[in-house]
Amino acid sequence: MSNLETRPAEVTAGPASGGPASGGPASGGPGAVVAGPAAAEVLRPREVPLGGPRAMTVRRTLPQRQRSLIGAWCFIDHYGPDQVVATGGMRVPPHPHTGLQTISWLLRGMVEHRDSAGNHALIRPGELNLMTAGRGISHSEVSTPDTPVLHGVQLWAALPSASRFAEPGFAQYVPPLVRADGLWARVFLGSLLGSSSPVATHSPLLGAEVSIDAGAVARIPVEVTHEHGVLVDGGPVALDGTPLSTGELGYLTPGRDAIELAAPGAAARVLILGGTPLGEQIVMWWNFVGRSHDEIAGFRADWQARIGAAPGGDRQRFDLPVGNTLPPLPAPPLPAVTLRPRQ
Ligand code: MN
What we know:
The protein is mainly β.
């Protein structure tokens, strides 16, 4: 999916940005109380229209003022269940990406994906579709005509410096449904509950859809070095005792070896996203991840040149999706000033 905001803000995220600390409790002197892991932080979604006359709206929980990164996860859009007849469905024209991987995870409906690396795929519920932008890719995403209801999540993971100019690519994987005490899970990236995804990531990442039985309290062992985000698709749930409603994202610092998820009422469904803190400062604007404002401006110029919207630029960075029929999406204007890093 594309960030279709007409005036996207530039987001600087990472350890040099002065953002919220993700480490454990400070060491104290004699008599200091050694605290356990902090309670879950609740991140609330904001509604963002994807554009068009019958705009489909997504609920964005990352990035936001409170937090920009969870591991390498840098973008979380949650949408639906939407009646396509009312929203127009998903119709995202060709747009570019750099320096990240996109993960489409559908719960209902079907989306047709085309990218400039020559990939043409149908994205179905329960199947991982991971696109690596690396040095530059463009893609289009259109819900299929026989999709009456659309429901899913679009995620981005920032690539670390060592691999952010990797070759563009696309991977699919159908994770098995695994059963554990009080829950069902599909692990699409990383490892959880004995299920491991074979799809490569460029930093340690976890992505899993987890359904909690009605009334159950599930204890899920996790990597102690990871920080985690739990996106509630159907709640309410309690995350380590903190109540979360549908659409909210609970954030947990590293330093815990398990997380507890309770479904106090009906059965609940969440996405668990985890990863080791990226440890790098990134700059995000529109659909690009880079390391500086000037680099982002260069990516924008290259895309505008490629689609014939401006002269100059490196026309080799981006190609257009093969077989696409929609006109490409021009980049919005850059912010007039370089925004200060978010706190
Ligand atoms: Mn996209």
